[in-house]
Amino acid sequence: MVRPPSARSAVPRAGRLGLLEPTAAESLTTLGWDNVESIAVLWSLSRAPDADLALTTLIRIRESLGSDWDALDSAIRAETTLRGRLFALIGSSTAFGDHLVADPRSWTMLRREELPDRDELVADLLAVVGAEPETGPNAAPMLFRATESGPEVVAALRKRYRDQLMLLAAVDLAATVENEPVVPYEVVGRQLTALADAALTTALAVAVARVCRDEPCPVRLAVIAMGKSGACELNYVSDVDIVFVAEPADAIATRLAAEMMTVGSSAFFEVDAGLRPEGKAGALVRTLESHLAYYQRWARTWEFQALLKARPMTGDPELGEQYRAATDAMVWTASERPDFVPDVQAMRRRVEKLVPEDLRDRELKLGSGSLRDVEFAVQLLQLVHGRVDPKLHVQGTVEALAALTARGYVGREDAANLTASYEFLRLLEHRLQLQRLKRTHTLPAADDEEGMRWLARAAHIRPDGKRDAAGVLQVELRRNTSRIRRLHTKLFYRPLLESVASIESAALRLGPDAAVRQLAALGYADPEHALGHLRALTSGISRKGRIQALLLPTLLAWLGDTPDPDAGLLAYRRVSEGLNDQDWYLRVLRDEGAVGQRLMMVLGSSAYLPDLLINAPETIRMFADGPEGPLLLRPQPADVAGGILTAADRYDDPKRAVATARSLRRHELARVASADLLGLLDVPQVCTALSSVWVAVLEASLRAVIRASVAERGAPAPADFAVIGMGRLGGMELGYGSDADVLFVCDPRPGEDEHVAVKWANGIAEQVQKLLGAPSTDPPLQVDAGLRPEGRSGPLVRTLAAYAAYYRQWAQPWEVQALLRAHQVSGDQDLGLRFLHTIDPVRYPAGGVSADAVREIRRIKARVDSERLPRGADPATHTKLGRGGLADIEWTVQLLQLRHAHEVPELHNTSTLEALDVIARHELLGAEDTDLLRQSWLTATAARNALVLVRGKPSDQLPAPGRTLSAVARVAGWPSDDGGEFLDNYLRITRRARAVVERVFGV
């Protein structure tokens, strides 16, 4: 151990102390260190990495302290540990020197015996902002709320963070001056990571206060550390890579995340969320399900490599652990991806090429023989072998090297050499960054002797008798970088790696366990069940089994790109088994690539379609492309309707006629839904096709029932009979989940008793409802006559005269409004037209609707808004009754019709979209307003139809962000699987449309 001169020695000259500044001797006199009693202090000062910098900084600190200097002077003389920490710190870092000059009394922190642990660091920084634990349903152990959140807190947090960083740096550097213990690299990394965790916990507390104000935080937000922060091996100055997970991933969660990043980047360090799915172009905040959906379907090899270091950092620990646990399964199977090993190797080569030629010999992080060489080699070994060896599931580089050594994947000597060289380069990196607290990985230039001398001394490197410290550093750099490059090449390009990856992957694919993992990698949530389906499809030695085996790899890949591959595979099995006796089925799949791909998209996206396709298999043939495009687009609605009527008219038995109509309806629903899901039809085309087939089935049923009645009576019908479409049926705007709202009207024929005629007509109406409403595996056919006069308590059928009398004397404003969509759809055409002429004066009154009626409609609208929304429904996302939903748009159009139809005959139209065109053309509303209403109606209708297609049953409520919403978004035509973006767009459009509605209704 080197000892200072004895107290009897004379005070050495300044030059002998390593002080080169001309004013050094004068400075020593100013400090009172020019006497024999100061020998020990001067000796310590001489060992500082830059003694002149340390002395100059001490003079500045003395000036800042004024009369308080004596306390620091006494402590320096008496406390060896403090002296070593202080001199090493201010002799290594101009940044920390400036920090002490700005707040000289913070030197007392350097007296602390032990470094604070993570909990203490969290408490210390939270105290700066007066943070308190968050309360409420989403409160988590690491979620706090600041009581001080104004702009001034950034400066206060920056000061306190710098204090804690200063303490760590002083402890880390002290061994360069005094005989203090050297702090292991891993301890420094963990301490820096703990401080970063505390910093972002505090930044989140400030964000909660700023975003949520006095309200409980309505979201669960987990912050996931990535990169060096995730592995607990941070540098002194690093970007801190993070990823956000939230439930729900709504606007508030996004604001919280953005605000946290702003506070963190302003007060502590650069906070970078660029490793999130889709990078900086992707959503800042995602749900866990959205993250997993992305990683299952879209992530590239390097993203799984990054996930290797993912660690819950702060926020909601339970959600963070769910993220870690869920992504772990994908990380450790990533090496089964095709060309995984070559991909990682190619990535390393690309990174190396990014280093400018003139910096390659000075680059500690990215160049040849650099830190990245070690990290890439270690991570590749982990990912290849870790899928079968859980002992390798660790995050830190040094920790992983130890695990690889213990398990025999790396030799002990190689691992020891690689670890030592890695820690050496990390030490240099830390010292470079401490100098000015700047993010750098670049060594001083070869001709910068003073820079290399300072770096060597800061890194505990001393002369060796032949070379000065800078020369020793140069030798050590060459030795360590060469050793890293040699070992990197040996491990990273080891032939065993690629062969193990390919052989084990091939073997795994042959066995059940491997098949399960392969299916899981493709995105199957329940790969065991999926494997059972595959076995059933390929069992036996039949030709069909061989064709299935040939088809399935491609089909499974296509299914993997759908929202629900598991349900899609089950549906494919059911379709295949249902069509086992159809020779054309597998042949078409094999020979027509478009059929297979489209079928997988349909089956993996929709719970509505599989049963339809099983019962209407010929639709699958229509997935092929013809000379003029997809065959799904060939039939026109009018041709389909004509075919239904012709086929049903062949049967006298109403049940057989209705069964035939139902069968053809099934084919048409399967065709329309398939074309819709595949993006081949727009919303108006879908509505027209669905309405047309509904009208055709209703007409076919009515004809069959009347034919049977006439045959049974042995006499002509006693009355003419017509069905009037109401609501969306009247407007020919039905969706998949719509009922058919109707009115039944009859008119006794000459000479017939009215009572007998009405009784007969009631029987006809009841039988039609019964036949169409009979239980079936098909989507339901509900005929609803609830809009008739007096509602469900009134007679099911009325005569034309009775309707005229009722509407003339008793019609309520809501009934007048409902009549705006009345349109003849089936039965006696002449009677239907006479009914419409009868109600025209009621729904289109001369002079327009009265002011009282308008007020009543507004009152009813307000009541509907407040009372009809189902319990628990979200008014922002209910497609029918929510804000800016279908009801809002339709009521607005109908109010304008009531007020202006008497002067604009074109408004005598039952279609919402066509009426909007008229409203725009006659400038009854501004062009922008009408366009907003149209967009909202189309958006809500597309979403409502997509809900039925995805869920397989009628639904009006958009789901919360997650897998189902992403599926709905995709089926509704959104250009990506990002359900959050789709929801944001829906909310934006409907919110703007709602503003138009409120202006029209005078709200």
TrEMBL record:
Q: Segment Adenylyl transferase: which positions?
A: 504-1003
Glutamate-ammonia ligase adenylyltransferase repeated domain: from which residue to which, for each copy?
142-323, 597-837
Keyword annotations: ATP-binding, Magnesium, Multifunctional enzyme, Nucleotide-binding, Nucleotidyltransferase, Transferase
Q: Which cofactor does it need?
A: Mg(2+)
Source domain of life is: Bacteria
What EC number is given for this enzyme? 2.7.7.89, 2.7.7.42
Domain PII-uridylyltransferase/Glutamine-synthetase adenylyltransferase: residue ranges: 346-492, 876-1000
The answer, when asked if Transport is one of the entry's keywords, is no
NCBIfam families given in the database record = PRK14109.1 (NF010707)
* Name the UniProt record assigns to this protein: Bifunctional glutamine synthetase adenylyltransferase/adenylyl-removing enzyme
Q: Gene behind this chain?
A: glnE
